Amino acid sequence: MRIISGTHKGKRISAPKKLPVRPTTDMAKEALFNILNNRYYFDELTVVDLFSGTGNISYEFASRGTKNISAVDADYGCVKFINDTSDALEMGIAAFKSDVFTYLEKSREKATIIFADPPYDLPIESFEKIPQKVFENGLLLDNGLLIIEHSSHMDLSHLEHFVEKRKYGGSIFSFFAWPEPVTL
């Protein structure tokens, strides 16, 4: 994986093979960050990266100037890798081990961007639970976006707060926001 833009542009990061991950492709990540770049100043964001895996998305935000990033993953190896990489690159990402659904129940941290990249083989009910818990618990700031990456074989457009979806290869980003109009 590589960092696309910012202070660490072009930096390649090699994750251990044993981690249970499926990183977001460079093509999909670049498209996503082009969307976000047109809407936000990265240095003003608060980001929560759920199912963070290798930390691919967190590193991209940090490289672009985001200072307040929390990465949440249930796998200790993933959390250790993110913390080690963040320390080595002086990114300041706060990675911690937690079941994402427990985190969504207990956390009161509000964020501008909540990015979730669950394992594609989770049942659709688990995917549906993410926006439900985010909005029910008020975890997204008024001008924020919840972005869920999922397989192109899944459709989340029926869920409350759904705004739009974008397809990149076999992946889709579904965007969710508070009721006021959002233009991507």
UniProtKB/TrEMBL annotation:
Protein keywords: Methyltransferase, Transferase
Entry-linked CDD domains: AdoMet_MTases (cd02440)
Keyword 4Fe-4S annotated: no
Gene Ontology biological process: rRNA methylation
Signal peptide segment: none
InterPro entries: RNA_MeTrfase_RsmD (IPR004398), SAM-dependent_MTases_sf (IPR029063)
GO MF annotations in UniProt: methyltransferase activity
PANTHER family referenced in this protein's UniProt entry, alphabetically: METHYLTRANSFERASE
Protein name, per record: 16S rRNA (Guanine(966)-N(2))-methyltransferase RsmD
Classification lineage: Bacteria, Pseudomonadati, Bacteroidota, Flavobacteriia, Flavobacteriales
